[in-house]
Design brief:
The chain is an all-alpha fold. It is built from 18 helices and no strands. Helix 11 packs antiparallel against helix 12, helix 12 runs antiparallel to helix 16 and helix 17 runs antiparallel to helix 18.
């Protein structure tokens, strides 16, 4: 009963917010829009985004600003739920925020490498100032990776990126290091900060994601890069993929050997998607299923909140994809295909 009472407020809040999710019919409407201004007008009139896009002139907003505002809507919803949470519940939200922090670090890094001045990250500054030590505004204004890394002094990320800093290193290498750090830190901290259903739900979602990412990266590195250096990007954590199987995957040379190493494991069913190139879609479906299962298995925990924020993050990804499709004048049926 105490558990039900302590979680009832934040879960009720999340359920009320779920009503404003983009529906299948909404995506159909979006796929038939003809211009970016039409797209912004639609969001201005949608209950899930009217607060974010209110007062925006749809005729002058550029792509970077629109994408930034979509991401900001996720942080905005996170802040609403954070205010409804108690200290124990915030432990779970802190894990979710850690991912946001890594994602914004990667977004700032893209701006440096791509010289993308249209992608507006300043909108996130106030949010991260409340929850993080990183200075988003300074990172986004960096003109080189040396300057970018210097802006991270005093944070845990400074030494991580400094240790691999080279003149010829790619943004991909930096991003992989950040992702590995995120999963390793989260996996170690979960047992210290969480308990009960919250720990069970997060262990299941994190563990499965780590296993799948290790399988995907090993397969791609062998297929496209043929490099043993890729092993340095393996997340040194195993969940339902045993250490012995992971080693066999690392040692596999052919696809048949790789598939044989997966046979008999929890992840045997993904073998066809590896061979036909649909592994990314399979991965997304499996992660979706886990968050949905956790929400139903542990209804008086933070699992429904994690589900809401995962759903919202995926919605932002879909809306960003839709914006790109509209921008490049894709046919409605093709837009809907890419979005869904």
């Amino acid at each position: 009963m105490n558990n039900l009472l302590s979680y009832s407020g934040i879960i009720t809040k999340a359920k009320a917010m779920e009503i404003r999710f983009i529906t299948y019919n909404d995506y159909q409407t979006i796929s038939n829009l003809e211009s970016t201004s039409d797209y912004i007008t639609f969001l201005k009139n949608h209950p899930g985004y009217s607060e974010i896009f209110n007062g925006i002139d749809e005729h002058i907003i550029h792509r970077g600003q629109a994408e930034g505002m979509l991401i900001y809507s996720l942080y905005h919803d996170f802040s609403k739920l954070y205010r409804f949470s108690n200290l124990t519940q915030r432990n779970v939200l802190d894990f979710i925020f850690f991912r946001y922090e890594v994602n914004v670090l990667k977004a700032c890094m893209h701006a440096v490498y791509n010289k993308d001045e249209d992608y507006d990250l300043s909108l996130f500054s106030s949010f991260f100032n409340k929850h993080s030590k990183i200075n988003v505004k300074a990172l986004a204004s960096s003109h080189s990776m040396e300057e970018y890394i210097n802006h991270l002094k005093g944070t845990e990320y400074y030494s991580i990126l400094t240790n691999i800093q080279k003149s010829d290193i790619s943004s991909f290498d930096y991003e992989m290091k950040l992702d590995v750090h995120y999963f390793m830190k989260s996996w170690k901290l979960k047992d210290k900060l969480l308990k009960g259903d919250d720990l069970k739900a997060l262990t299941h979602s994190f563990g499965t994601e780590i296993d799948l990412l290790n399988i995907m990266w090993l397969y791609r590195s062998k297929k496209f890069y043929h490099s043993s250096e890729s092993y340095s990007y393996i997340i040194p954590v195993t969940y339902k993929l045993s250490k012995e199987r992971l080693i066999k995957l690392m040692e596999a040379i052919t696809f048949d050997e790789f598939a044989a190493a997966l046979k008999g494991s929890t992840y045997e069913k993904i073998i066809p998607s590896l061979s036909d190139g649909t592994i990314e879609l399979t991965y997304q479906k499996m992660i979706w299923k886990i968050y949905w299962e956790n929400k139903n298995l542990y209804p008086t925990s933070m699992a429904p909140i994690s589900y809401y924020l995962f759903h919202k993050r995926d919605e932002v990804r879909r809306l960003t994809t839709a914006l790109e499709c509209i921008r490049y004048k894709l046919a409605p049926q093709d837009t809907l295909k890419y979005v869904l």
